[in-house]
Amino acid sequence: MATIWNRFDKRNIYFSLLIALILPIIQIYQKATISATGDNRFWDSPFTLWMGVDNFSFTTVAYYLIVPLIAALPVATILRRDLDNGFLMQLRIKRKLKPVLRSYLTWSFILGGLVVAVPLLINIVSLALIYPSVFPDNLLNQNILVINQNTLFVSLYYHHPWIHSLLSILFVSFWGGLFAMFTTAMSLLLKNRFLALSSGLLTQLALMLVQEFGIPTGSLAPVDFMKQSASSGINLVVALEVTVSAIVIVIILWRMGVAKVVSS
Questions:
Q1: Predicted confidence (pLDDT) at residue 2 exceeds the cutoff of 70
Q2: For residue 245, what are the CA distances in angstroms to 148, 221, 249?
Q3: Which of 209, 216, 239, 250 is 20 to 30 A from 92, comparing alpha carbons?
């Protein structure tokens, strides 16, 4: 793990985090501008305005849409680079290759999860410093339309909004790590680094296209059920099925990629 960590360009990791912060900071500015007018007729709070609930802002929609790309930015394609420049082949002489490859996968999960979760955490905490942290009310806050059809565990949202919000961020972090691992696995199978980098985003767009046919009972796209309150109908069973399927697919692709590298 330490050997692979030293391979990473830390400036690239910090730069990826700065890129990920752009949209959440813009969204904070938009909401702070509204607060400056002193007009809080809808009893707004950080729980009704932060990115996990805000379905009416382009910055929010764009952020959750490109989560697969943001998560892949820090280290997901470095494995392909090290394969191309011969570093892994040199390392192969000194140690077994499989544990080394597994270290790349582990770091991609950790850093991919952090780079998408930290901006969201900063977003909700910043809004909590601007707006009063009053609990949302299903009558007073009807304008945000947080209901059972588009929000998982909706009762928890109204009774314990901080817990519900933090669980939402943890779920986004998990999916960010999952997307990063998917990209890392694809980088073993694809020589084109750009195609590998965008593979997670392309998969998400494909799932959004499939769900437009209306076959599933809930959204298939992580862009919906990663959010605290989705812009489409979601179903807990479907969300769990997609998550488990994604984990299985990542494992299969990873084993295929490792087998390809080890046998080469």
A1: no
A2: 24, 12, 6
A3: 250
String of DSSP letters for the chain? -HHHHHHS-HHHHHHHHHHHHHHHHHHHHHHHHHHHTT--TT---HHHHSTTT--S-HHHHHHHHTHHHHHHTTTTTHHHHHHHTTHHHHHHHHS-HHHHHHHHHHHHHHHHHHHHHHHHHHHHHHHHHHS--PPP-TTTTGGG---TTTSTTHHHHHH-HHHHHHHHHHHHHHHHHHHHHHHHHHHHH-S-HHHHHTHHHHHHHHHHHHHTT--SSS---HHHHTSSS-SS---HHHHHHHHHHHHHHHHHHHHHHHHHHHH-
CB of 144 within 8 A of CB of 231? Answer: no
Task: Find out whether 136 and 146 touch, Cβ atoms under 8 Å.
Answer: yes
pLDDT of residue 42: 63
**For residue 210, which amino acid is it?**
V
What number is the average pLDDT over the span 205-209? 88
pLDDT at position 156: 92
Structure tokens belonging to residue 23: 């949209």
Cα separations in angstroms, 85 against 88, 145, 180, 198:
8, 52, 21, 21
Q: Which two tokens stand for residue 11?
A: 């400036």
Handedness of CA 182, 185, 188, 189 (dihedral sign): negative
Percentage of the chain surpassing pLDDT 70?
94
Predicted model pTM? 0.90
Name the token pair of 3: 């050997």
Do 187 and 76 meet the contact criterion of CB atoms below 8 Å apart?
yes
